[in-house]
Design brief:
single chain; Alpha-Beta Plaits; two-stranded antiparallel ribbon; 4 helices; binds iron/sulfur cluster
Length: 126
C-alpha cells in the first residue's frame, strides 16, 4: 500500500494553475466586464492615468488567479491573455502601467505607478 502521507508534506503547497490571466492595460477600457465574471474576485480596479475620476483600468492579482479563463472569454476588447505561469509575472510587469498591488513582489520594481487602493469615486463626486 502506498504511503502517501509519508511521501507528501503535511501541509501541501497550493497547486498553481498552468496559465494565469494577464491584462494588457494598453488595451483596457475599464469596462469592468471581467470583474463581474471573475469567480475569485482577483481583478482589481485601478484609476486611469489621465482622468482618474472617469477613466479606469484593471489589473489581476496573479497570486490569487485560478486560471479559469472567464475574463479572457468575456473581455469585449480582447485585452486579457492566458500566459504560462512561469512567464505571466514578467509579462504582467511589462503590461501594467498602474497598479494597486504595491506589496506584490512582482510589482515592486516593475516601473508601474502604484496608486492607492480602494473604490474609485463616482463621476461628479468629490
Ligand atoms: S482567469 Fe479566472 S480567476 Fe483568473 S482573473 Fe480571469 S476570471 Fe479571475
Ligand atoms: S473586460 Fe477587458 S477592457 Fe473591460 S475592464 Fe476587463 S480587461 Fe479592461
Amino acid at each position: 500500500m502506498a504511503q502517501e502521507s509519508a511521501l507528501e508534506p503535511s501541509v501541501k503547497k497550493k497547486k498553481r494553475p498552468r496559465e494565469l490571466a494577464v491584462v494588457n492595460q494598453a488595451g483596457c477600457t475599464g469596462c469592468e466586464v471581467c470583474v463581474e465574471f471573475c469567480p475569485v474576485d482577483c481583478i482589481l480596479t485601478v484609476p486611469g492615468a489621465a482622468h482618474t475620476q472617469h477613466q479606469k483600468l484593471v489589473e489581476i492579482d496573479l497570486d490569487i488567479c485560478i486560471g479559469c479563463k472567464l475574463c479572457v472569454k468575456y473581455c469585449p476588447w480582447d485585452t486579457i491573455e492566458m500566459i504560462p505561469g512561469d512567464q505571466a509575472y514578467g509579462l504582467a510587469q511589462a503590461w501594467t502601467s498602474r497598479s494597486v498591488l504595491g506589496d506584490a513582489e512582482w510589482i515592486v520594481g516593475s516601473g508601474a505607478e502604484v496608486v492607492e487602493s480602494g473604490p474609485l469615486p463616482l463621476p461628479g463626486s468629490k
